[in-house]
Automatic annotation (TrEMBL):
Residues 366-574 form the CYRIA/CYRIB Rac1 binding domain. Residues 203-213 have a biased composition (Polar residues). GO terms for biological process: regulation of actin filament polymerization. Residues 118-130 have a biased composition (Low complexity). This is Putative cytoplasmic FMR1-interacting protein. Residues 1-159, 200-242 are annotated as: Disordered. Residues 1-12, 35-87 have a biased composition (Pro residues). It comes from Penaeus vannamei (Whiteleg shrimp). GO terms for molecular function: small GTPase binding. It comes from the Eukaryota. Belongs to the CYFIP family.
Amino acid sequence: MADLPPPPPPPPEDYDLDILPPPPPPPVDYDMSALPPPPPPPQDDFQAPLPPPDDFQAPLPPPDDFQAPVPPPDYDLDSEPPPPPPQVLSESAGGGDPRASLTDMGQRARSRESDTASLSSRRSTWSSTSQHKGPRRPPSRQSLASTPPAGERRGPGGVVLQRQVSSASMAAYTQPFMLSEEAQGASSLYGTMSKAARKAAKTQRQPYQNAETYGTIRRGNAGMNRYDLHDHKSGSSSSRDVRNLQWDELGRLSRNSLHSVSNGSQMTLSGSDLAPIPQEEAGQQDFLTRLKPVPRLVSEEGVGMAGERVTITDALSNVDVLDDLPLPDQQPVIEAQACSVVYTANFDTNFEDRMAYVTGVAKYMEEAATHAELNKLLEEGENHAVMLYTWRCCSRAIPQPKSNEQPNRVEIYEKTVKVLSDEVKKLTKFMNFQRKAIDVFCNQIKRLCHQEKRKDFVSEAYLLTLGKFINMFAVLDELKNMKSSVKNDYSTYRRAAQFLKVMSDTQSLQESQNLSMFLATQNKIRDTLKEKLTAIPSYEDLLCDVVNISVHMFENRMYLTPKEKQMLVKVMGFGLFLIDSDICNINKLDQKKKIKLDKIDKIFKNLEVVPLFGDMQIAPFNYIKRSKNFDAKMWPLCSASTTSPQADLMCHLPRIRDEHIKYISELARYSNEVITTYKETARTDAENKDIADLALRGLQLLSEWTSVVTELYSWKLLHPTDHHSNNQCPADAEEYERATRYNYTDEEKFALIEVIAMIKGLQVLMARMETVFLDSIRRNIYQEMQDFVQLTLRDPLRKAIKNKKELLRTILVSVRETSADWVKGMEPPDDPALKGKKDPDNGFEIKVLRRNVGPSSTQLYMVRTMLESLISDKSGGKKTLRKELDGQHLCQIDEFHKTSFFWTYLLNFSETLQFCCDLSQLWYREFYLEMTMGRRIQFPIEMSMPWILTDHILRTKDASMMECVLYPLDLYNDSAYYALTQFRKQFLYDEIEAEVNLCFDQFVFKLSEQIFAYYKHLAGSILLDKRFRSECSLHNMRIHYPPANRYDTLLKQRHVQLLGRSIDLNKLICQRINSSMHKSLEVAIARFEGADITSVVELEGLIEVNKLTHKLLSQLLVLDDFDAQLREANHNVLAPYGRTTLHVFWELNYDFLPNYCYNAATNRFVKAPVTTFAQPVQRDKPPNVAPYMVWGSKALNVAFNTIYSQYSGFLGPPHLRSIVRVLGYQGIAVVMQELLEIIHSLIQGNIHQFTKTLLQAMPKQCKLPRYDYGSPGVLGYYHAQLNDIVQYPDARTDLFHHFRELGNALLFCLLVEQSLTQEEVCDLLQAAPFQNILPRPYCKEGEKPETKQKRLEAKYAPLQIVSNIERLGTAKQAMIAREGDLLTRERLCCGLSIFEVILTRIQTFLEDPIWHGSPPANGVMNVDECTEFHRLWSALQFVMCIPVGANNFTVEQLFGEGLNWAGCCMIVLLGQQRRFEALDFCYHVLRVQKVDGKDEAVKGIQLKRMCDRIRRFQVLNSQIFAVLNKYLKTSDPDNLPVEHVRCFQPPIHQSLANQTYQRPDHLR
């Protein structure tokens, strides 16, 4: 070893293990053709290498000013060995001969390569787990524990040399020595990175430096010794190797290799001392190139000093670049540990390295060999148990011949034999195995029960292995008894084989007969084992020891996984059954105090049922009941009828909660300390011990909680409920359904969920700290073992040597030589204790190393076994070794023995953590599937325990449990992991996967539905009128808000791990919520379509509640735009009109126009009392949906229905405002256009026809009677003249109905525009502050309005949209802002009026001559002629004004004011308003009646009543004319059109026609 280069010194104590990468993977997939041939191993006849070629040049010497780099100041090098000095290869160094220099260099390289080979072969022995990321130390004596097989060569120091080593492995070890100073860049001496250096690296945005073979990271600015290997060829390793670096002639790293190294590997070089990477190779370096260079604050001497300051611009730019960093989402952790496929190294050698510990006691080495064989049998037995448990019946799927004459009978039997032959071979192997295992077990019992051996010491581990055999026999026997499908399949095979005469020879027939009898005989394994044991003398003594050690370990909790605990209980029960026989009575053994039945009775009562295998369970006390000498009096607790505490989870829950809170509080303290604090020095021994104890305590708690869950589940399976005990359980429920679905109360389900959540949650926390735990565990175990072996055992060893106790000395020396790791590789020769002398007065110092490595499994077994022999009561001699030790030393050895029991579990922390949290048993149901006898292929998810618990949370909507809803689903992960790793059955995994697919779909569906219903309920509660809520409270009717729930945590889950899949739960829920939102909007529109037009107010409310729901959900979900969803539900994506627009028009056309009457006093339309003028309206029935689809809950539905019922029965401003807001401009335009079509059809259709008919019935002339006739005479005259009109039968029905439709359409257009104007005014008022439209400020005396106005403008300047966008935005944005501002300003200022356009369009419909009549005969106007429309309307108005009887409906009641609006509108548009007002019949009657004031009955018409009605109609007409003229702008004198006035000669009476006119002044 002297000629080997020294390994790198150990790293400093301030590195952080959390960020170190794993070691490079072994080169398994390299292209071997691309690798250079490995160098041959050293031979005795080794020859010097060939001389170099002639053109060889020696390497350049280092520059004159070369200085060794100074180590970084943050390391303390006093305690570390100095690095080797730089090796400079020059002619002077090699005696002036470059050839000799090259030869020396080649020898050194081969020496390093040989050392590399040996180190590579031992690398797996150095590390304790594959996930260890800490630095590795050189091997010690305790790790060199393998004996080379024959034919292997040994190197210096007995190191085993490999025959061949790959170049990649060589590069991995020699890389630290091969890198030049330039290539090393900023690497340190130790290959580690302190936290300070990492912070600096993060600041410069540089990736971590080269990953060494030790799994560490090298830092910069401290050069490493360079070995220039001139014979190293560039590109010798594979392109996939992380060490794919190219070297130039001087041994420096080529810049061309940077890109290939940085892609996909963990090794990246710092670019501080290298030239920039070319642009074409710097695609991934874009992030780094955006950073500004940060100046170094180190002087030439390497001492920190105040250097150049970083500018604020560069610093801010570096901070801005951080925005581009992809950071992991901060989602809450509410799921279990992800189950991923990882490589876990198994360092349990099963005692294969036992021969390496030649210093151990030979007896225990032999016991280790026996252990190895027994462990192999146990593993094989586990495989057979898996085979039996997962056996599915094949014979049911195979067709059976129905008769002997069936033609394909032979073919069926041949296929049967072919299918089942492999399965039968497994059964044959199983039969042979159980026979062999029983023989081996009985031989071991017989050997240990020999009279000479009974006094010998039998180790605890050996007794425990025998107990595992007893457990294996019990499991295999119960599995064989349970699986009737095995017997059925074999019977089918045997029948077919006998028919085909496959088993023709005697041996095959005998073997078949034996297998048939073996499978058919119940309890065959158990009875055979007991029969053979009873033939062994004193076998009960050894089995008592096995039972007692099981009781001892159970009571002292010397187990860690739940399986081990349950195995101990099964060993007690089955062991006592094997002991009890005709020749041995367990009751007498209790009296002899060989066993303590009272303790076992208590254990069996507390644990009535234990899992046997999978979902099979067994009551251990049943073994006692079946024993030959069972006496119930000896088992008072188990014989009692009280329920076991195992069945009551609620009694365990408070304790589990307290333990969980206390532990996670302490764990959080260490976790926060690791994350947030930085310590310059490594942890002390006390700190490592505390963390190791914390890890052990956590594993014990997890194991205990898992045991509680699995034991409760087993008890429930063995005690199913029935319809008498549970009313919800049907009488015909299946056995498994009664054991799972109906066997748990709600409280028990919640308790189960809570405990499972605590188990899985703590598993996540502990897995996160695995690196910290493993580091402290290994250091603590190493420290405790070495301190105990090197320090604690010194005094017992000194006394043993002094007192010449040779056996004690031999064992103590064997313990020390087996496990001691001395400072200099050997025990101090001058130790006084080795000579039996006391230490000198000044003491004898022994320095114990501190390493990060634990003992091997064989090493730990040897040490514990030898120490156990010292403290055991049995030693094989007359005097036990226990009495030769002092009490103090005895206590120390006993304490070490107890403590070291858990070390094996702690060293395999990851695997132990998985086993302690395994709840896969809660899914498996092979036993119950077997019981169905083929009726069930698989049980539905309603009977599956994981889904039962998940669905219970969703069904109860318990807020405290909602965050735990993902933990029961992790039971599928456990089951799938167990199916793949333990059972290794693909079909089981496929069944689990199929159930997970179904359950997760159900889970997402139900959860999405709940979330939507919750937020819909919340939105509805927010929008519910507060006064209405308070009034309901006064009447003891409370409408509650939804109880707060924790859905927000679930909605943040972006990567839920389930069966190896990463599921974006947020996205899935988002898709469902979008669907529910769309459906909710469709329901709202469908409800509107199923009701009349007055329900438009409710539609607007439903849209608002959905909009608020969308807003609340959008805080957690990325939902589709609400307006887009509304357009889609409204079918308004591509069409110019949607469902709401169509239904509004449909209602207007078929219900509103023909059936509603307008009342100007209330500004409402009400339904007419008589609706026989139009056909009944047929509407679709509203959909029947869940309450949450409407307003959110049943109570809210009732409340809102009550509120909106007040808007039914009339159409007024609220409805019109809702129509405006719901339809929008586009919908209003569509409705207006359709209404114009209706008006057009009315005017030019029915009204035109009626007008034409009625004008023929009108008198040719109807003059205005003189006042002299009096009002009765005038009324009588008109009644006589208009008698045909009055008696016209269709006037009061169809004609008035058509005019009502026309008037309602006009009124609807007018009122819609008014509502639209109000909405626009509100928009303008709200937009005013953003458009610099400010109110005029109030000014006191002496204040200038201009100053205050400017102050207000300056105050609100940041709100000005246009100016700000023009200043900060782009040109396109500024243009859009200006156009939007202009549109808003001109919205109402341009004087546009919809109603004016409507009137103008209607005016074009009145071009027919019938409306205007014949030209006037006098050339001016028609006075007495009845040819124009206003004369017809006067006649119709006369009919309207005739009073009706008390029991009859008036015209107003039947048709409303729409009738008047229709006539007046047509009169105005025809330009006949003035003539109508002057020549109207009713107005003339009213004027005459005002003069004479008479009140008479004329032809049954009361004059006074009629005049009152005429007066009301006159006022109404005046109002209508005023409104129409306002929109037609005829009242504005500035806008009056220019009139062409003609002057006519005034008419002259005939009596004066012949007289000559003379001026008055001439008459005088």
